[in-house]
Amino acid sequence: MSTEEKSLHFIEQIIEDSLASGFPQDKLRFRFPPEPNGYLHIGHAKSICLNFGLGLKYNAPVNLRFDDTNPAKEEQEYVDAIKEDLKWLGFNWTEELYSSDYFQQLYDWAVAMIKNGKAYIDSQSSEDMAIQKGTPTQPGVDGPNRNRSVEDNLTLFEGMKSGNFPEGSHVLRAKIDMKSTNMLMRDPLMYRILHRHHHRTGNDWNIYPMYDYAHGESDYIEQISHSICTLEFVMHRELYNWFLDQIYDDLKVRPHQYEFARLNLNYTVMSKRKLLQLVQENIVNGWDDPRMPTISGLRRRGFTAASIRKFCDIIGVAKRENVIDVSLLEFCLREDLNKTAPRVMAVLDPIKLIITNYPEDKEEWLEAENNQEDESAGFRKVPFSRELYIEREDFLEEAPAKFFRLSLGREVRLKNAYIIKGESVVKDVAGNITEIHVTYDEDSRSGSGSEASQRKVAGTLHWVSIQHALETEVRLYDRLFIDEAPDNHKEKNFLEFMNSSSLQIVKGFVEPSLSDVKADEKFQFQRLGYFNVDKDSSEGKIVFNKTVGLKDAWEEKGKKEENLLMNTQKEINKYVKEKDENNADLILNSIIENIKSIDNYSLIIQTIVKNIKNDNNSLLFSNLILHYSDKVKIKDIEEESLTKLYSMSLKSQMATVRILAIQNLQNDLNNYSLFETQLSEIKNVEKNEKVLKLLNDLKL
């Protein structure tokens, strides 16, 4: 069998070139350097898989180094969580190291730099330093402390270390070039005063090194050969090299920094600051909330380490930023769970089903396959009796032709059991169905080999025996945000895009084979999706988390919303052509309801902007969306597009367009004054009574 070799990604090619140029393979060394100021998320998983993957490929050591230089934000809890995540992902580090291990060495090097005229103490305020530093287009200027004597700098630096000064009173800056085109080279900070307790060094230090100083020097101490960072550190590379220049000994390996594109995932936020906000404001239930993109959250939801590694492998390593669809991550998970998760039956929205011709005292244990994708998974026994639960949505009293589930007069098969036929229903005083009565074909049992068992029916339903069912708590998780890019909209807080339906808790019933499940065990609830046993489970109480559905519901929803907007635009044409006023009103109400039902913020914005053109129907559509959608506000539309929409709409020959434009302007105080003159001119020539009334109400 021939196998196709996977091509090298650019980091691997760099390493191959290094080896080809004579770099000794036994000198290759990598590191994963998290800052312990939060839990790792799926974006870190890409870096983890890259660095540890290189270690495995080249049989080279990979250090786990915690860049713990900011005690104001770092905690031992985060250190422990990071180590747990790495182990769960399947990676082992060579050495566990900390930047704080090097505090004395970093301090000694800083003293040497002061003595060599390469660093100085600056006592300006942070505001004055920012002004003095200039802008990207304007060079900086030397500050008043830049030429302090070596003796004064050493004395002040020792005083900072000894805790003689308050926070913010002094900093140590590298003395490089205040006119550099790279603003990071304009005398960057090396040390600041922080009177904070450090999770490892306690209160030994009152000064702490800045990341840009500590990072590269720590790489050098550990003799890291390839320091791999994300693209936002491209501009930092010059500074990384400058700091190395001050200490480099040509008898040692000199680290080199290389940058790759970080993982950007839609419907997600990756900022640790924003994830921390979600936790601190109790919007989620901790860092390991199953809706969080943290590795611990994904693990608790039911993701497998193999699926995350597979995902990172598929997306690859590139130099250019792009956004990955979260559906790909879910696809990798389904593919993994499909092979490994046992199939079981559960009902989450139960309705009682009674088989009227089944003996009341009879009980059967039927054979059910555990996983048709895994021959070694074997079979189990499930109990069957006269009274069952089925999903409420699997029954309609009167069903359309393409409804392939249970209804009166129709037959379906119960999974692993018998063919049943809907006969009648029992309703409460409010008219709600409380029981479904059916009959069964005694000769149709699955696997019996009888002629009746091989009869084809329209659908197959899952079920549980009421007498034997286990009651469980089921947490139905969904995406945390309803927008593709929740933190990428100007003047919009990412919290405005929270999915109010991201967690629903229901009471479900499962088959008795699940009575002794343990936390983190994974199952496929047939026809419902994949579920994971939550750590909150205890004796007598099982809690399941919905991991992912069997299909991508969001893709289906996205297509539905796109199709709905397209069809709504066609309804606009019908509305415009309709001569009967009552019919027109009905069509308009339908259009408005459709607009209100769309949740996708980005899709709505795109549709509004796309329809700002010299076409009455398109302008009507844009104005209707702007007026009736509660997902967008006027300020969300770019000023240029908004001005164009108003200007074109007020000139429209269609009165409805002019009315909606005026109404939208009434709600837009920022732009209303810009159009007052045009509105007055329209008032002087307007003949439509509704438009005139609206203009008169404006008191122009």
UniProtKB/TrEMBL annotation:
Residues 27-338 form the Glutamyl/glutaminyl-tRNA synthetase class Ib catalytic domain. It catalyses: tRNA(Gln) + L-glutamine + ATP = L-glutaminyl-tRNA(Gln) + AMP + diphosphate. Residues 460-534 form the tRNA synthetases class I (E and Q) anti-codon binding domain. This is Glutamine--tRNA ligase. Residues 341-441 form the Glutamyl/glutaminyl-tRNA synthetase class Ib anti-codon binding domain. The keyword Cell wall biogenesis/degradation does not apply. One of its GO terms (biological process) is glutaminyl-tRNA aminoacylation. PROSITE patterns: AA_TRNA_LIGASE_I (PS00178). One of its GO terms (molecular function) is ATP binding. Pfam families: tRNA-synt_1c, tRNA-synt_1c_C, tRNA-synt_1c_C2. It comes from the Bacteria. Residues 551-585 form a coiled coil. The keyword Coiled coil applies. Belongs to the class-I aminoacyl-tRNA synthetase family. Its EC number is 6.1.1.18. Keywords: Aminoacyl-tRNA synthetase, ATP-binding, Coiled coil, Cytoplasm, Ligase, Nucleotide-binding, Protein biosynthesis. GO terms for cellular component: cytosol.
